[in-house]
Write a structure and sequence with these properties.
homodimer, 356 residues, alpha/beta, Rossmann fold, N-(1-d-carboxylethyl)-l-norvaline Dehydrogenase, domain 2, eight-stranded mixed β-sheet, 8 strands, globular, L-carnitine dehydrogenase (chains A, B)
């Protein structure tokens, strides 16, 4: 199952990342974003994404999908079989936007919300056909990181969850369907736990943001990027495996290692402390430069993992390998289509994906 | 400043990892571990470490240091300028072992404890010369992951912290000196936060251990391996940077995303659930096979990062590049020394590092 035409409502960092992934897969995308700067901002993200895809798509890239800017949600969603909502995290705004998408979308279009934490059931109340709403929560940069958490609400039909899974997989992603609906799902529950703990460590002066980042990236960050937490701990248990590990480290849960579990007060002083330390750590690079470094690293790491497990590919690398192949196949497809078109006076392309 | 001779007290997963890093840097290591299986277990780790180093040391490796098994702590620490303690995490045991190390170590030897969380001040009470004790907390696999958290206690002298920093850096590590002594330091505070949250997610049936691992390794794991958390969020703030990000996501701290902050009950049911899911996820590989896959991935990812930032190297990759060069230089050094020795009837080598 593939996406013929997509709509993105909201073109911020996440929305533009969706636009980039879709367009670079050869899919036409229509955007609605009331921000007068939207076109420029999406353009910047596209520039970065094109650069990353040219680097990683060693077998070629399909002809880029056409990106258009709609004047209304109704115009944007017309004819789209996937509609991705990426507006700010306010339930009232989500309700308003989803109601409008719902009113104008094709009957069987999948509506995916990029929310990091709002439960789909809480968003469905505003919709007349809520059965096709799923949360499809991606990770920045959306055009490179493959994960998408798929979460259905009380009114979501199973077949739409399954269809969403297939649609997102068709653009090189790794959909993980979350079994029970909770706030913040799995990804942001883990991220929040880490963030909360990190804020304490900075606030209490135990380390700076640069030291904390170094502690992550020179150690367990490298473990988690390839195996995740449980598989790593299985190994740490040594020859006795997981049960041994659990027996050995379970008791720490009641040690003072976990005593600071309340939420640190989030005030101007803390914001200042972190922003100042962050400037000291990264001020020598612009955000655009950091994005390039990040994207190059992500591609290089996925390529490295693509050679893992004796050449079979491992984790994100295994998927990356398939994705590069898929883009290459699509490249040949669009080349052949362009050739056919050039040879024939009549446009024989599917009208929706034809770019005149 | 370099290490001439090292002693490792405790030869489990962590202790053996230290032995491997030291020996592969050409340093003689004496081990004390009362476990009758110690020699076999250290041998297994050495086998894995040699394999990884052969792969990564593209400029050659120094002649391996000699590994000897001592009958007592006194015998092990004799003549060592670095003594690494890696015994189980029980304060009474640490006291007993450190007192014995202290009594027999060279006056100016650095004593590093591998503890993940016990405060150095709490360990120093058993020592007569506590000023040279630091926590030097590494991450598994010690022979590949570069991070070591250096923590001084109330009685640790600054110059010994500085010397420890230099000694660990000399064997390719990234020492980060922790500014204030707290239980679990920085690394294990972060790991515990993540672990606690993960246990909730599994216990509540939100996802399986395999799904949770996938959620990490197809998304933020790849981000953290190269940049850590704060630098990543700086980028997420977009053109407005860190302050914008903080303003946008700060309020989530008081949302229900963080409501489950107490400690899940750690009972047999939870251990069973996790061990069973872990078998389903990884049962097809032995621990040794998983270790090989992990080590290959770690080396490949560090090599990938060594090409980062336009070839300058980035994060763990920048260090990796230097480490490979350093091993290569040492390789030439030991080759030259072997040649000199072969040409001369008298052994002109420093007796401590001569291996007959």
């Amino acid at each position: 199952m593939t996406i013929t035409r997509a709509a993105c409502v909201g073109g911020g960092v996440i929305g533009a990342g969706w636009v980039a992934r879709l367009a670079l897969n050869g899919i036409d995308v229509s955007i609605f974003d009331p921000d007068p700067e939207a076109k420029r901002k999406v353009g910047e993200v596209m520039k970065g994404a094109r650069r990353a895809y040219r680097r990683m798509a060693t077998n070629g890239l399909p002809r880029e999908g056409r990106i258009t800017y709609a004047k209304s949600i109704a115009e944007a969603v017309e004819g789209a079989d996937l509609i991705q909502e990426s507006v700010p995290e306010r339930l009232d705004l989500k309700h308003k936007v989803l109601a409008e998408i719902d009113a104008h979308a094709q009957r069987d279009a999948i509506i995916g919300s990029s929310t990091s934490g709002i439960k789909p059931t809480d968003m469905q109340s505003a919709m007349k056909r809520p059965q096709r709403l799923v949360v499809a929560h991606p990770f920045n940069p959306v055009y490179l990181l493959p994960l998408v958490e798929i979460v259905g609400g009380e009114k979501t039909k199973k077949k739409h969850v399954e269809r969403a899974r297939e649609l997102y997989a068709s653009i090189g992603m790794k959909p993980v369907v979350i079994r029970k609906e909770i706030e913040a799902f799995v990804g942001d529950r883990l991220l929040e736990a880490m963030w909360r703990e990190a804020l304490w460590l900075i606030k209490d002066g135990i380390c700076t943001v640069e030291e904390l980042d170094d502690i992550m990236r020179y150690s367990f960050g490298l473990r988690w990027a390839q195996m995740g937490m449980f598989q790593v701990y299985r190994i740490a248990g040594g020859e006795a495996g997981m049960r041994h590990f659990m027996a050995q480290f379970g008791p720490c849960l009641s040690w003072p290692w976990t005593k600071l579990m309340d939420v640190p007060e989030f005030n101007d002083e803390l914001v200042d402390l972190i922003a100042t330390q962050s400037d000291a750590q990264s001020g020598q690079w612009s955000i655009r430069e950091l994005e390039k470094i990040r994207d190059d690293n992500l591609v290089a790491m996925m390529e490295a993992l693509a050679r893992g497990d004796g050449g079979k590919g491992w984790g994100a690398g295994e998927l990356h390998k398939d994705y590069v192949k898929q883009l290459g196949k699509a490249a040949k497809g669009s080349k052949a289509a362009r050739k056919r078109k050039a040879e024939s006076p009549a446009n024989t392309l599917e009208p929706k994906s034809g770019k005149g």
